[in-house]
User: What shape does this take?
Amino acid sequence: MSVSTSSTKAEIIRAAERLFAQHGIDGVSLRQIGAEAGNGNKSAVQYHFGTKELLLQAICEHRLPDIHERRRMLIARYRPRDLRSWVECYVLPLLEQGEREDSRYLTFVSMLRHHNRQDVFRRLPEEFQASTREFGERVAALLPHLPEPLREHRIGQVVSFGVEAASDRERARVNGYPVVPFALHVADLLDGLLGFLQAPASPAALAALEDASPGTTWLPYL
Assistant: This one.
């Protein structure tokens, strides 16, 4: 791949991420993305990515290597054994990504979630899926007081809460709204996530669990 081609694809990916984050997955055409990327060729996006589906996947694959490398560094540094450390190693890179001036990735991921597009994550390379599975397994082992499938559901909710908190803050910063200092944002969110995970299942929840139909918890691979 030439430098020019690589640069063009990267510009298209960043433009698509911005537009999808702003207007939603169904609110943007490939032609609009090409124009936002500064490409006069109306077919440039289709030439480089083929379809919108492949472009959605390309955005994830553009951002995830840095996020996953940051997770690996945190795990190597902290050697997590307790629940808070595992949650921090997984969630902190997402929150940090939301602070980047050149990124709208967390808002984009939030849009994918709201459009029920888990298929995009399921097509990602195995290394990203394995990372999320490991997180789920490590945290599940530290929550023996919760029965399944409630335990799996809570872990999925924690990932969702982290994504939504980061995307809310990302949107606030982009629009010039005040936000709390980042260190406070991280510490307070971790406190809330840990409290949610560790809370005992109430009699009402256990009774509802008996009547619940089997379902599938979506853990996005991010």
Observations:
- The chain has two domains: 1-50, 61-211.
- Residues 107 and 167 are 5 Å apart (CA to CA).
- The chain has eleven helices and no strands.
- The longest helix spans residues 52-78.
